[in-house]
Structure formats: structure tokens, C-alpha cells
Design goal:
Elements (H helix, E strand, L loop, with lengths): L18 H5 L9 H4 L15 H24 L5 H24 L8 H25 L5 H8 L2 H11 L6 H17 L1 H4 L5 H21 L8 H22 L13 H28 L2 H4 L2 H16 L6 H23 L1
Length: 342
């Protein structure tokens, strides 16, 4: 996910690795955990206005994260899923931390134990539970179908808000029902045998983990600097992915010489654009924008992913994928439109 992040938004575009740091003046805006709370406020608090920085970050997440599903699919052609995800996130997290230190000094990475623990927990939920499971699933599930399944994330967020005591509104609940109906249609390729059902179920589990991580991030004591938060999350999530890969024995029989050039290229793209740039943009959005707006990437990413999968990898777009995807996207649009009217 790109994730659902790094895979990510990507991660939400920029021309170089320093872009996520330069895109927003971090020293001018350093939100605290309490400052992030309004992002999860229930509708009915007045019409919101969003600045250019928010729309720029959203644009990165919309386009780049949509392309990461294709990148993941190419990586796992010749690389093990969890080990490749671990390398991706650890390298991206360390590079981002280095960029922050070079620009702002070591102080930018100073956090309390509670903030570090929160960032690590969210990193595990988003990157090990969310993105890691997607990488594993894409060994058998087409990239476009994976992206369409992940589009159900906003529906999970509505349900989580309801459990926490909020009341998103009737339109949001109707959108959830539509999303679940579309999800049922999207599982048909797995039920019919066209796609392994375990892969479909794995992606569905990933959407729940990603939703919980996104929901929790606005309610936990996170580091003040959103890019430092992103760095800690990526390192924690990447290390966890690597450990899971080792536990699964992915290192046995791994021949780096047999890894294709296109898999290496795709991994590099995921590190720089999918994680360093896009996941950082996503982490910044979780601090500065309403979660309901941030979640709108879920109905743009599938369009990008399905188009790229069909054009570049020749993935077939069957009627269950087209119909189920349309229903899910319609449900997400209804959820978002309900939130924006609040």
C-alpha cells in the first residue's frame, strides 16, 4: 500500500529525495498530538478550507501511491515479499532521517519514549500489517485488484469512528454498505478460482490494519515533526518486515544475481517515490488534514493502479473487478462527500 504506502502516497510529485522535506516548511509548522485531534473531529463543526500544501500532498499520494501497486508486483517477480519490503522501508526511513538531520540538526529526531513507542506501533500497523500483507498478496493477486480491494479503507475508518463514539452521518453509513457490497463482488475472482482466495483475504486483512494505524495516529502522542514521525515509522515497520521475512525463511535460496534489473529498478522507485516522498506526504497529511479527506486517496489510487496494470503488465480487467471496483469507489465518494458537507 503504497501502500495500502508507503505501499503510499505515495506516497502521494517531486523530482528529488529532498522533496518531502522541502515541500512543507517543517520549522514553520510543528503540530503536536493535540493539534492533530481536530482532524478526526465529527462533522458539523463548520465548513473546512484546505491550503495548497494539503492539496499538493494529496496529489502526491493520489498519483504515486497508485503506481506503487505496479512497482510491488514487479519487485515480487524475483524478490521475496517481506525481505524486499523490509529493505524498502528501512533504507527510506534512514535516508529521510539523514535529510532531516542535515537540514535541522539532531534535535529534530529527539522524541519522548511515549512518542517513539507510538510511532513504532503505527509503523507496525501501517507497514507490516498494511503494506507487508499487500506485498505478500501481490505474489498471486493482480496489482489492479489489490488496489481496488484497498479502496475499502475509508469504510473501515467510518466504522472505527463509530466505535469510538463519533457519528459520521447516514450518508457515510450508506457509503460503508456500498463499499462492503463492492468488496463482496471483488472477491468473486478468488471464489471462482481466477485468483487465489487467500490472496484476496490477505489484502482485506491489510486494509483493516492500515485503517487502524491511520485512525490511531491522530489519537496517540506522536513526534512533533511529521517527517521525523515518518522516518521512525518506516524504520520500525521495515525492521519488522525483515524479521518476518527471515522467520518465513525467505533468505533461503535467495540469489541476488538472479534478481532481474526491472525488479531492482522497481525497488528503487518504491524506496524514493513510494516511501521517502509519498509515505512522508501521507504522514504529514495525518497531522494536518481531516482523516476523511486524507482517505480519499483510496478512490484515486485504484484508477491509476488498474490502468497501469492493464497497460504495462497486461492484467485483465474482468467484469467482477470492473463492477466491484465501481461500487467500492462509489461508496467511498459518498463517504467523502458526506464528510465534506459536514
Amino acid at each position: 500500500m503504497t501502500s495500502p504506502a508507503a505501499e503510499p502516497a505515495a506516497d502521494p510529485t517531486a523530482s528529488d529525495a529532498a522533496a518531502p522535506v522541502d515541500a512543507v516548511p517543517v520549522d514553520a509548522v510543528e503540530p503536536t498530538a493535540s493539534a492533530a485531534a481536530p482532524a478526526a473531529a465529527p462533522p458539523g463543526t463548520g465548513r473546512r478550507r484546505f491550503g495548497a500544501a494539503i492539496w499538493a500532498a494529496l496529489g502526491i499520494v493520489y498519483v504515486v501511491w497508485g503506481s506503487t501497486y505496479l512497482g510491488i508486483r514487479v519487485v515480487v517477480e524475483t524478490m521475496p515479499p517481506f525481505l524486499s519490503a523490509g529493505v524498502r522501508f528501512v533504507v527510506a526511513g534512514l535516508l529521510l532521517a539523514l535529510l532531516l538531520v542535515c537540514r535541522y540538526g539532531l534535535g529534530v529526531l529527539r522524541v519522548s519514549r511515549a512518542q517513539l513507542a507510538s510511532a513504532a506501533l503505527v509503523g507496525l500497523l501501517l507497514l507490516l500489517g498494511g503494506n507487508g500483507l499487500v506485498v505478500l498478496a501481490e505474489t498471486t493477486v493482480p496489482s489492479g485488484l489489490a488496489a481496488l480491494l484497498i479502496a475499502v479503507v475509508p469504510a473501515w475508518v467510518v466504522l472505527l469512528r463509530t466505535v469510538s463514539g463519533e457519528r459520521p452521518g447516514r450518508g457515510a453509513y450508506l457509503g460503508v454498505l456500498l463499499g462492503l457490497a463492492g468488496l463482496a463482488v471483488l472477491t468473486l475472482p478468488g471464489i471462482s478460482g481466477e485468483v487465489r482466495i487467500w490472496g484476496v483475504l490477505t489484502v482485506m486483512a491489510a486494509t483493516l490494519m492500515w485503517s487502524v494505524g491511520s485512525f490511531a495516529s491522530s489519537r496517540l502522542p506522536m513526534p512533533k515533526n511529521p517527517f521525523a514521525t515518518s522516518a521512525y515509522e518506516m524504520v520500525a515497520g521495515g525492521l519488522a518486515c525483515a524479521l518476518v521475512g527471515l522467520a518465513r525463511g525467505e533468505q533461503h535460496g535467495l540469489d541476488l544475481g538472479a534478481v532481474s534489473a526491472r525488479s531492482w529498478t522497481a525497488l528503487g522507485y518504491l524506496i524514493v517515490f513510494g516511501s521517502l516522498i509519498a509515505f512522508s506526504a501521507y504522514a504529514w497529511l495525518l497531522h494536518h488534514a481531516p482523516l476523511s479527506l486524507t482517505a480519499t486517496y483510496a478512490y484515486v489510487n485504484p484508477v491509476v493502479a488498474v490502468a497501469l496494470g492493464a497497460l504495462i503488465l497486461g492484467e485483465a480487467v474482468s467484469w467482477p473487478i470492473a463492477l466491484g471496483g465501481a461500487i467500492v469507489v462509489g461508496g467511498v465518494c459518498l463517504i467523502v462527500s458526506t464528510e465534506r458537507r459536514g
